[in-house]
Amino acid sequence: MEYSxxxxxxYALSVSPVKKKLLVLGIMFLLWxxxxxxxxxxxxxxxxxxxxxxxxxxxxEGARVDLVSKLVPKKPQGWVDLESDDDEPSLRTPSRDLLxxxxxxxxxxxxxxxxxxxxxxxxxxxSTFSNGSGTKKLPQAIIIGVKKGxxxxxxxxxxxxxxxxxxxxxxxxxxxxxxxxxxxxxxxMPKTLEGQITMxxxxxxxxxxxxxxxxxxMSRDTKLIVVVRDPxxxxxxxxxxxxSKKPDIPTFESLTFKNRSTGxxxxxxxxxxxxxxxxxxxxxxxxxxxxxxxxxxGERLIRDPAGELGRVQDFLGLKRxxxxxxxxxxxxxxxxxxxxxxxxxxxxxxxxxKGRTHPNIDPEVVRRLRDFYRPFNMKFYQMTGHNFGWN
Length: 391
Ligand SMILES: Nc1ncnc2c1ncn2[C@@H]1O[C@H](COP(=O)(O)OS(=O)(=O)O)[C@@H](OP(=O)(O)O)[C@H]1O
Prior knowledge:
Layout: H1 5-14, H2 17-51, H3 55-71, E1 111-113, H4 125-130, E2 135-136, E3 141-145, H5 151-158, E4 164-166, H6 181-188, E5 191-192, E6 197-201, H7 211-218, E7 223-228, H8 231-245, H9 252-256, E8 257-259, E9 264-265, H10 270-273, H11 277-285, E10 293-297, H12 298-303, H13 305-315, E11 327-330, E12 335-338, E13 348-350, H14 363-384
Parallel strand pairs: 3-6, 3-7, 4-6, 7-10
Antiparallel strand pairs: 1-13, 2-5, 8-9, 11-12
The structure holds 3'-phosphate-adenosine-5'-phosphate sulfate.
């Protein structure tokens, strides 16, 4: 009787228990490799398959963008590019617009961990794997302003919510990058599962004349959030930020006035102009009803973060998950911080670019600025139905 080599091997194995075990282990290893291979194949194929149903939607969005492009000029006309940090002189108010800089752009140093571990700027390989499911969607809610209002704190606090997924950096899509198209914009977004909200924050949108029409064209249902702060302290905060990067700029006092002896305020200076909230809001109300815009008090966000977050969660239709249990007041920073941030078990405060010491400003100049803003503030309280108490 002839034996095949396999049978003869098996026969040999039957007499050697050690080899038998080795064979079983080998087979298990091969099965494990096969399963892993299948899973990777599945995981990489799922997102693209899930994106497909959106292709037709994408075309509609593309058509809408074409319409907006026809209706809305891509570059602001007759409007100071309040936020841009590029050096195109045509987009700037000559010499007076000294606060143009890129400091809004999200940076690693905006986020400070009170542990030794650094927060990775990009998701790690592991988190990419675990976040592999879901699809990238255009944001349903945007923090549109205001610069230096507390927008970073609000976004980082909101990210603690399991139903909120947000892009960390400021996309500047509706002001600087509109030419790149909605597909580009959507690609920046994190993947979300059913029921999760996609968000971003770019504070310069609030003062960008084209932004309301452009966001409306993306989706008329977009929820808008504006973090507002006393316009005088906001202006000083804005100036402080620029001073930290350009120490040679003129004093706050000299930039505030067109002519100091006449006391005429220079409204073309972006630090002043951004704070005329009533004027900017008017622009948004041409496209969005008031009920679709939530105003968060920057001052209250520091004093009572859980209270403001409660309002924001209600506005977004989210379960109130973020409560005062999530915050503690950090005496050294002088701000509320998170006991645990998204994806971490350690306490987190915003970094050193938030909460810089403001320079002392001549009290007379502060008083003049308060007088200047008062009627605009009153108008803003009237429009929003909320007294922010800035006087
Ligand atoms: N929790 C917490 N931690 C740190 N800082 C906080 C916090 N809440 C609000 N703020 C205030 O946020 C101000 C910066 O606002 P923004 O994040 O909107 O600035 S930016 O426009 O994105 O550059 C920043 O302004 P400055 O103090 O002038 O630096 C802070 O006062």
